[in-house]
Amino acid sequence: MLRILVVGSGGREHALVWALRRSPAVREVYCAPGNPGMKEASCLPVGAGDVAALVRAATDLRPDLVVVGPEEPLARGVVDGLEAAGVRAFGPTQRAARIESSKVYAKQLLARAGVPQPDHRTFDSAEEALRWVRQLGGRCVVKADGLAGGKGALVCQDVREAEDAVRSLMVEGRFGEAGRRVVVEEYLEGEEASALAFVDGEVVVPMVLAQDHKRLLDGDRGPNTGGMGAVAPLAHLPGSLTEQVTREILQPTAKALCDDGAPFRGVLYAGLMLTREGPRVLEFNARFGDPEAQVLLPLLESDLTEVLVAACTGRLEDVRLRWRPGAAVCVVAAARGYPEAPQTGQEVRGLDKPLPPASLVFCAGVARRDGKMVTAGGRVLNAVGLGADVRQAREAAYRVLEHVRFDGMHYRTDIGLRALRAVGAER
After folding, report:
1. Which of the four pLDDT bands, split at 50, 70 and 90, describes residue 7?
2. pLDDT grade, residue 427 (50/70/90)?
């Protein structure tokens, strides 16, 4: 029987804890630092960004496996530290995690690998970046080179927006050092999709495609966020698309990382734009997406623990993923003021009541004060619905938000509608 430590505290980590705890091979799950909504785990008071403390905690606890959820500890080298201490970890090394922690490195790697991506330029000078966006006519995407909590890509429709984006990142320091260097890339038209795969070196095992909803407001309006909801699978897309993405994008990228002396072990996540010319890579992440994990893991019929252990022991090529029929929809309930200045301290009501059928709640930005669950972050909780199709899954997810409430709760009402429209099933 295995003991597993999950690193992180958000909805993604709660979904990981939930999925791992369902394995008959698992005796106990710990989470550092976790959150009080994770009833399936024992939470440890260790911050996800404190690499030295995480390594000490894992050395003392001696779990059979550490699963790293967020990007920050990966970028800081927590897997390197764990492996040096003799602790098995699922996640990429610091060198391999650069595919997410540096947009510039990722762009260069994809160019060497011949992976399709938007035309782009890199800038260390704000003045040079400003001149370029003016030449482009303003319609472009300005991206911080480093980690920015999923909010570092600024989509611009005109010159003024593009100039404001450049100044915000490079002059005003909106994301600190992460935005001192920027990538400016062409604006692509099409539908976005998230392609995630379990990877060990050159072995790539793809998951079903998912779709994130990054903008704050209905109709894909408002600022970018860490993600306001997700849907999986994307049944309206050709069944051959996953095979194409694996062949043209995921496998060449995994090989390029190996060739670069940075073999990747973990979840490799390609954010795609499905253009008329084919899929193009908008970004790579070095871990499960949040909220993609919240829809993919409930659909995964295979034992997640077995998959992760196989990836860590050189047996991933023997894995054949099994998926439950139907669909999953996740709706993120955010605090008033998110993403800029989320309000905290509001009581979360209804978590102690039975959930509606075919639904789950994964907690994220919550804390316990004076015996009550209260909001403690921007994205507070994730309402997940399961169903025979996207319509049923949507209905189940939104029923959850009739039962679990907090003052100032905000959520999009159109999660999954794009997928419904694509198959003519909207109602």
Report:
1. very high
2. very low
Q: What is the dihedral of CA 29, 30, 31, 34, to 10 degrees?
A: 90
| pLDDT of the residue at 148 | 84
Whether pTM > 0.90 for this model: the answer is yes
269, β-bridge pairs: 196, 285
Q: Which fold has domain 191-318?
A: D-amino Acid Aminotransferase; Chain A, domain 1 (3.30.470)
**Token pair of 73 as six digits:** 């500890």
Residue range 327-422 forms a domain whose CATH class is alpha beta
Q: Which residues contact 218 (CB under 8 A, 6 or more apart)?
A: 412, 413, 414
Q: Is the dihedral of CA 292, 297, 301, 303 positive or negative?
A: positive
| CA–CA gap between residue 305 and residue 289 (Å, rounded) | 18
Cα gap 242→239, rounded to integer Å: 7
The Cα 336–Cα 409 span in angstroms is 6
Q: Distance (Å, rounded) from C-alpha 397 to C-alpha 262?
A: 39
Task: List the chain domain ranges.
Answer: 2-93, 125-180, 191-318, 327-422
pLDDT tens for 55-72 read 999 999 999 999 999 999
Q: Is the dihedral of CA 112, 278, 157, 210 positive or negative?
A: negative
